[in-house]
Design goal:
single chain, about 170 residues, alpha+beta, Aminopeptidase, 2 domains, seven-stranded mixed sheet, 4 helices, 7 strands, about 30% strand
Length: about 170
């Protein structure tokens, strides 16, 4: 019988060839190797790998800026998406930063699957970054998870501008 248990562990430099392979398959404008090296070099960051059957299947990069955590990148092998891997990675980050921490991220408004996932964790849309994505000039939706967003409000989100996001 094959072990299909999903494990999370610290992402390390030796993982980068596999990370780059997933990144290139998952995104139209993938991060460079240098971007991953920079994030892994930050002692205050949280960089995690998801591993199944001894193989890297996803990762998450989360950096700290003052009192706010920023999910910079979360990706799962495209062949294995919608199987709870990203959920496990986000749960692991929230467990490490603490349930009361402020967390933000950017997401394409067309990525309805990711938006639905983030909403399950209490993230709410609170603004946009015009022409954020280089490949097509698409805006980014800025989402936050704070004590207020967990109540469905934006009261404690810096410079929040409520923005409707299409329901999945």
């Amino acid at each position: 019988m094959t072990d299909t248990t999903l494990e999370t562990r610290r992402l390390v430099f030796a993982d980068l060839p596999n990370v780059i392979a997933i990144e290139r398959r998952a995104f139209p404008t993938p991060w460079s190797l240098a971007m991953f090296v920079l994030e892994l070099s930050k002692p205050e960051g949280i960089c995690l790998a998801a591993q199944r059957d001894g193989q890297l299947v996803g990762y998450i990069i989360c950096s700290r800026f003052d009192q706010v955590w920023h999910i910079m990148n979360v990706s799962v092998d495209p062949d294995l998406q919608r199987r709870g891997i990203a959920t496990t990675l986000i749960e692991a980050v929230i467990a490490r930063v603490g349930g009361e921490a402020q967390i933000t991220l950017e997401v394409r408004p067309t990525n309805v699957g990711a938006i639905a996932l983030y909403k399950k964790f209490g993230f709410l849309a609170a603004g946009s970054r015009p022409r954020y994505y280089q490949d097509n000039g698409e805006d980014a939706v800025i989402m936050w998870r704070t004590q207020a967003t967990l109540r469905g409000e934006l009261d404690d989100v810096p410079a929040a501008k409520a923005r409707p996001v299409a329901a999945p």
